[in-house]
Structures are given as C-alpha cells and as structure tokens.
Amino acid sequence: MTTKTDTAAPPSDMPADRPFATGPVLGVAAVAAVVLVLSATRYGYFGDELYFLAAGRRLSFGYADQGPVLPLLAALADTVAPGSLVALRLPAIVVTVVAVVVSALIAREFGGGRPAQVLTAVGYATSPFLLMQAKNLSTNAIDSALWVLITWLIVRWVRTRRDGLLLAAAVVTAIDMQVKWLIPFFWIALAIGSLSFGPRDLVRRPLLWVGGVIVLSVSIPSLLWQAAHGWPQLGLGAVVREEQQYTGGQAMFVPLAVLIAGALGAVLLCYGVWALLRYETLRPYRFLGVSTVLLLVVFLVSGGRVYYLAGMYGMVFAAGSVALVGAVQRTGSRRRRRILLGSGAALAALSLVLIAGSTPWQNPGDIAPPANDTEAAMNIGLFGEFGWPELAAAAVAAHRSLTPAEQAHSAVLAESYWQAGALDQLARAELPEVHSPSRGFGYFGAPADSATTMVCVGGDEDRMRAQFAILEPIGHVDTRLGFLGNTLDVTLWKCAQPRRPWSQVWPEWMHL
After folding, report:
1. Same domain for 399 and 336
2. Same domain, 396 and 347
3. Pair 225, 337 in one domain
4. How far apart are the C-alpha atoms of 214 and 171, rounded to whole Å?
5. DSSP-based helix, strand, coil % in the chain, nearest 5
6. What is the DSSP string of 236-272?
7. N- or C-end of the chain: fewer Cβ atoms within 10 A?
8. 3-class SS at 155?
9. Do 393 and 353 share a structural domain?
C-alpha cells in the first residue's frame, strides 16, 4: 500500500500557485546588487582571487583544491577586462543576487504569499555572510547560490512531480561539482531524508538517475586528474579541520552557523528548521528539514567549515518565512500582530546595521590591524585584501638586487599560494617564473633544475638552509594591514646553490 507522499501525482493538500511578488523581491535584489558592486571596488584582490587568476593562466581539468570553473571565470575576466575587480567578481555578484530571487521563489513554492516571499528575500539579502561573501570571487559564493537553485528545483518537483526538474537539478549539480565537492553530501542527505519521511518516489525517478550519469560523466576528467595526483582534494579535509581551531572548533560550530545568517536570518533559520520538521502545511517537505539536520551533523563531526551549510539557508529561510507569516496572520490579536510585525522590522533593521558594518566603507587608514592570528582568521575577508602591491614591489626589488648572472638562472619561490598568486598577477612581467609548494600552486610545477638562485618569499629558514648553500636576507615586508605570514613580517631571501635538484626536492616540499 502506498502512502500519499509515495505517489507519482502531486499530493492533494499541496498549496496552489501563489502570485510572485515580482516588484518587491526584485527591489530587494537590486539593492543587494548595488551594495555588492560598490563593495567590490573598495580595496584590493583577495588572496584566493590571486590564486584563481594564476590557476586561470594554467587551465586544467582538475586542481588540488577545487574544480576548473573559478579559474576559467578568472581567466575570462582577466582577458575581457584585465585588472578589473568588478569584472572578476561579477559572476559571484550575479549568482548571489539571483539566489535572493530564487529563495523567494522557494517561499512561493511552499505556499507563501507576497509577505513571506519578501521576508525571505530580505532575510537572504541582509545576511552579512550570504550577501558579503559575493564581494569576492569565491568557491563558496558560487557553490551556495547553486545549492539554492537546486533546492528550488527539488521543492518545485515535490509540488508538481515534473521529472524534468530533477534532470535540471542534476545539470546544476554537474556544474557545481566543477566548483566544489560538497554537493554529493547534499544528495546523500536528501536520499536518506526522502527514504525515511517521503516522498520515497524521489529516488526512484528515472530522470534523476539519468541526471546522476550526467554528473558522473562531467566529473570524470576532474576525477582522473585527482586520481593521477593522489587525491589531494580529499587530503584537504585534515587541513580544514586544523584551521577550524581559529574559529572555536566544534564547540562554536552551531552558534556561528546561526550567527552568520544575520539577525533576521538567525530567526528565520531556527524557525525554518522547526517548521520543516513540525509545520503541518510543510509536511511534504519534511525530508528537507531532516536533510538540513543531517548535513549539520556531518559537517560538525567531520570538522568542516561553518559556512558549508550556507547553501541550505535560502530554502530554510523560505520555510521560516512561510511559517512566521502564517502565525502572524492566524493571530486574532491586533496588538500581538503589531508586536510580531514590529519585531520583524527591528530584526531587519539590525541585519542592515550588520551589513553596513561588514561592508568595506572604511578608509584603509581607519582600519585597525589584526591583533593576533584569531582576529585575522575571523576577518580574513578583510585583511586578505591588503598588502599585495607592497609584497610585489619588494619581490621585484629583491630580484633586481641579484647580479645579471644570478638573474639569468633564477626563479621566485613563495611560501604561500596567496603570495605566489600575488606575484604572478602583479609582477609577472618583472619577475622570473613564480613557484610555491603551497596547496594547489605546488601542482603547477617545480622550479627548473637549472634555477640555481632563488628569491625566496618567506619560508622555513631551517628547511631552506638544508637545501641551499647560500641563504642571505635581501628584503623585508611588513605592511600595516595584511594577513599574517603573507604580507606581515615576511623576510625575502637570496637562496643560491641548491644542494639537490628541484625535481627531487619538490615532492617533499609540497603541502596542502
């Protein structure tokens, strides 16, 4: 005997289509777009963006720490508008603004009217993290937006049972697999949730499995690259777990996951999870609430970053908005209704204040430098945009201090992939080839064995003395604003007469 949620036809108690609040929602999205475009031009390149640009000049089917989409986008931006921060960041801005609109569409699919749709859009657009992550080109900005689109397609399928939506979700998943490898966790949690609470028919739809074949086929080149290089992307898990000590580790995971949603978003997030699990009108979508909880547990236990769950926020915000607006509309007391509406407006205002505080309107001279590693890590999006021109100028000066004979057989060796990306982008015409054993940059290749004199930017002094017969400081960088270990208190060295050829040393030096 089949249950209502197992049938191929839409459940009879599903809400009918509601008109879309086009004007208000697009208005919210437009304001978000303006804020992001203005923010994108305030400071400089973020460290990861410099790496994406370097990777874009070395296009490949696979990279150690990501898929090929962001390097390709960076290469296109730098070809169309070289040096333009807006062009580089435009893809992240566009998909985030689209996610604002799509989150409101999810509220509509849940049966929410204009108030719920607008509340969802405002919640998404006033989340300091969800919005401001798009002021830089980042894997998470693209990944989060694609998750919002996928969840909308799944929610719409539940209501309409149009299997083409599942195929479309698979196509978006195939694209997302070329950005980041988090989306398989979503589908596993979704399968567990639907098999446990329905609709069980979801995992039996033929077009869903056709879509799975598409995802696998598109991912084959990247998987082959990973296999050929020892699966470095899987090795990054241990690195990520170690990095989480700077944000409080597992003890702070849940509180930070709520806080990054913003003032209004935190309420919508918590109430949305409850509504998906308990709200009668949202019963057909209970599996999405279960999936959200499962993902939270997986990322918490595995030591993932707190924002790994952010792709679910648009859908959960929508559920919370529908439930909250329904509660307001059902109350018979005008006074209580005014209190609820006033509280919502206050939270929205507080969210806007948080957005203003996270938006880079300050002059660099008014920004206090980070006091320690923890503060720098918590504000990495800010401090990671400073110091790169100074680093590039110091590296050029250090290289020019070499004799012509030394310059003829030289290369640059940077301690971090951020430093290497900065030199590759900002001083490429004035420096020899730039290398770094750090993270994905190490897979771009070792210095030539003929490179006998290196300009080493930072690095472990003991390890360098073991490799080079000559080690002399020839420069120093210590910018007022910047990121520790990259532009703050960095020594530049002349490293000459390597004791072993780079083809032998490089595999030992490479690290994630």
Report:
1. no
2. no
3. yes
4. 7
5. 65, 5, 25
6. HHHHHHHHGGGGTGGGGHHHHHHHTT-HHHHHHHHHH
7. N
8. helix
9. no
H/E/C letters for each residue in 42-63? CCCCCHHHHHHHHHHCCCCCCC
Helix, coil or strand: residue 393 = helix
Alpha helices in 286-333 (DSSP H): 286-301, 313-330
**Residue 57 is assigned to a structural domain of this protein:** yes
Within 10 A of 373 (CB to CB), how many other CB atoms are there? 13
Buried-state track 400-414, b at ≥16 Cβ within 10 A, e below 16: eebeeebeeebbbbb
Give 430-465 as a 3 state SS string.
CCCCEECCEHHHHHHCCCCCCCCEEEEECCCHHHHH
Characterize the bridge pairing of strands 453-457 and 410-414.
parallel
Domain enclosing residue 26, as ranges: 4-9+19-358
Do residues 121 and 208 both lie within one domain? yes
- Is 92 a domain residue? yes
**Angle formed by the axes of helices 183-197 and 164-176, to 10°?**
150
Whether residue 458 sits in one domain with residue 409: yes
* Cα angle 96-72-94, degrees, rounded to a multiple of 5: 15
The count of structural domains within the chain is 2
Same domain, 345 and 409: no
- Mark whether 393 and 348 lie in a shared domain: no
Does 494 reside within a domain? yes
In angstroms, the CA 118 to CA 80 distance is: 36
Averaged pLDDT in 10-residue chunks for the chain of 512 residues: 40 58 92 91 92 96 93 96 95 97 97 93 91 91 97 96 96 96 95 93 94 95 93 81 67 84 91 93 95 94 87 96 84 65 69 64 75 72 89 96 93 96 95 94 93 93 92 92 87 94 92 87
Inside any domain, residue 438: yes
- In DSSP terms, which residues pair with 411 in a beta bridge? 454
For residues 19 and 25, give the distance between their C-alpha atoms in angstroms, rounded to a whole number: 12
Rg of the chain taking only CA atoms, in angstroms? 25
Which residue, of 358, 376, 400, is where some domain finishes? 358
Q: Integer distance in angstroms from the first to the last C-alpha of the chain? A: 53
